[in-house]
Design brief:
The chain is mostly helical. It folds into three domains: 2-265, no CATH class; 273-351, no CATH class; 365-422, no CATH class. It is built from 16 helices and six strands. The strands form two sheets. Strands 3-4-5-6 form a four-stranded mixed beta sheet. Keywords: Membrane, Transmembrane, Transmembrane helix. The chain crosses the membrane at residues 50-73, 94-117, 129-153, 165-184, 204-223, 235-253. It holds the Pfam family DUF7224. InterPro entries: DUF7224.
Length: 432
């Protein structure tokens, strides 16, 4: 049996397709820029990146290759000879499935190693996340099983490309319908999990059980339909029953509003990673402590711009961390490796008090019809030596007028403007 498996892996199409998909996947992971990527540096996102590529790209291609290999005997009229082997129809289907799945498992492991290596180069925390990868392995097995069944029952030359395209269309459809419960049965976790969330390991493992059991149950289908020698009989009941139970659990589980199905909120850390510069404090999730140098430089720039001024917020906590008081501000971090400029911009935006709920932003003529808070942000950015967008000639003239005023006048205007924004009042006239 092992010799037949190795022979089929060596001579079949699955190996070539897997190596092609693996080369594309490795290039995709290696070519990503760490400064602009949305995954390098976050273990959650690194696992999701590999899982998504493995399922959507490699899984679809391997399913098509399995369909082509499974239909080869009947296309070449060798099925009468292959049916005389001592192995039953289910065993033959499992053998074909194993040749493709083992190749995909090998390539999948290489891609995971590349992705984890890139994240380890940035993150100061060594905590790889495995549960999304386990689901990806099981989901790829289900895709290959569908290809084996389709190729065995419909041994046409068009079946293989049709199966691959069908899988891709399924994932595109569910991407536009993320709330559909049926999407839980065909998971491709194209989600964003930063430090705020952790994988829901139990649900991911239930989904992996569903995919694995469904794959084994499907592989018995060709033998049952064709009534091949040594049909599976009662043996097919066990994986089918497991698939029904696990799939039913996925369809009936509920998630609190606002939370993803496959993840849970992270527990609050006992000690966040914080930096203090003058009057400004910035705290991050411990897993993001590799960003402390950028946070320190950003806090220093914010302290120079608005540190001594009342009305502004100077206590920043990364999204998901519990605020310490009404003057605390949320610090959004959209990338695992933002530069100092991006961190400074995020702090400066959060430093301005938010307007109360239901407040209609006042608009001044000198801001070219834009909310007056834009002018306050532009002044603060300029004082922090950050670039300011161009909003029009009149807006630029007003900004230049404020920046040309004495520092004491600027401070008074900024303090009054910050208080006005927080109280839903128009900001005062610009100093002259």
């Amino acid at each position: 049996m092992t010799r037949v498996l190795l022979t089929e892996m060596r001579r079949g199409e699955a190996g070539k397709v897997a190596l092609l998909a693996g080369a594309a996947g490795v290039w995709y992971l290696v070519s990503a820029d760490a400064a602009t990527s949305d995954w390098i540096g976050w273990w959650n996102q690194a696992s999701i990146k590999v899982q998504v590529f493995g399922v959507i790209v490699m899984g679809s291609l391997m399913s098509a290759a399995a369909a082509w290999t499974a239909g080869r005997a009947r296309r070449t009229r060798a099925d009468a000879w292959s049916d005389t082997t001592p192995r039953g129809g289910w065993a033959q289907a499992v053998l074909l499935w194993a040749t493709g799945w083992l190749w995909s498992l090998l390539v999948y492991a290489v891609m995971a190693a590349v992705a984890f290596q890139r994240t380890a180069e940035i993150s100061e925390v060594t905590a790889p996340v495995w549960s999304p990868l386990v689901l990806g392995v099981a989901m790829t097995g289900l895709q290959i099983a569908v290809g084996v069944c389709a190729g065995t029952l419909l041994p046409s030359r068009i079946t293989a490309p049709a199966v691959g395209v069908l899988w891709y269309l399924v994932f595109v459809l569910f991407a536009f319908l993320p709330g559909t419960r049926a999407a839980r049965l065909f998971p491709a976790l194209d989600e964003h999990w930063d430090a705020t969330f952790q994988p829901n390991t139990s649900r991911l493992l239930v989904a992996a059980l569903w995919c694995g059991a469904a794959a084994l149950a499907l592989l018995a289908l060709p033998a049952l339909v064709r009534r091949a020698k040594l049909t599976p009989g009662p043996l097919a009941v066990l994986p089918a029953a497991l698939a029904v139970v696990a799939g039913g659990a996925l369809l009936t589980l509920r998630t609190p509003a606002g939370e993803p199905f496959w993840a849970v909120p992270s527990e609050q850390p006992a000690e966040p990673a914080c930096v203090v510069e003058g009057r400004v404090r910035a705290c991050l999730w411990p897993d993001d402590r590799h960003l402390l140098p950028q946070a320190r430089e950003a806090a220093r720039a914010v302290d120079r711009a608005v540190g001594p001024l009342p009305g502004f917020r100077r206590d920043f906590h990364q999204t998901g961390l519990r605020a310490t008081g009404p003057d605390s501000a949320e610090l959004p971090v959209y990338q695992p490796m933002p530069d100092t400029a991006a961190m400074t911009e995020a702090m400066l935006v959060s430093a301005l008090p938010p307007r109360p709920d239901g407040c209609e932003p006042p608009v001044r003529p000198e801001t070219d019809g834009l909310p007056d808070a834009f002018l306050v942000e532009a002044v603060v950015n300029s004082r922090a030596q950050m670039p300011t967008p161009y909003y029009g000639d009149r807006f630029a003239e007003t900004l230049t007028q404020i920046l040309a005023a004495p520092s004491a006048d600027q401070d008074r205007w900024l303090s009054a403007a910050a208080t006005a924004v927080g109280a839903c009042r128009p900001v005062p006239e610009a100093p002259r």
